[in-house]
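User: Study the fold:
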Amino acid sequence: MTGRYRHQVHIEGETMGKGYALTAALVLFLSGQVHAADLGPAAPEAPVFRPWYIHVGAMGVIFDEGASITLGGTPVPGVSATADDNFTVGFEVGYRFTPNIAVSFTAGFPPSTTLTGTGPLAGIDLGRVTYGPAVLSAHYHFTNFGPLFQPYLGAGVNYTLVWNEKDRAVRDLKVDNAFGFVLQAGIESDISEHWGTFVDVKKIFLTTDATGLVGGVPATADIDLNPWILMGGVTYRF
């Protein structure tokens, strides 16, 4: 075998080796593409579950009131009382055990309401009461409508703490703290991972007792307050 022939065989062998290597690389590349196509697009990353949330916003207390009043132990027919509606700043702190089930505590900056007589006492300022409504409730959140519309329903218990009473026509006015039953409904809208908005409505079935003196005569009142608690504002999740 001449030198020229051996050189030609060497070149052809080297060329064939490079061709085999290129072919193998191409096969591996194509098989990888086919495997990736079989897997399909990557699944979107699941949102982070943030169980704690805070609601902060405007709170309205709309009373649906009535009263039965006795004077010197004798019921006074036709006499009742009204309570002024209030607006304040409220907050709610909640915890979700699951995306659907949560508990929360709601309170607000203590507002003051004026009790005014009706019937024979119409227009008479009976007294002024500063109180703090607080609600502990459990609720179910419906999450199948998307992040912008998440309604919920709940129920719980209210404790209304009377901070202060101020006498007017009724002297030595005392109003009892009281428990009540609560029904709740609302809607949350998530704007981002942490922030959102909400509206919330609570109905509190609340009765309390009041005592005092009217013209030196002992007076008692059984007062049905039954307020609606309306809230709307901002949600923060963490």
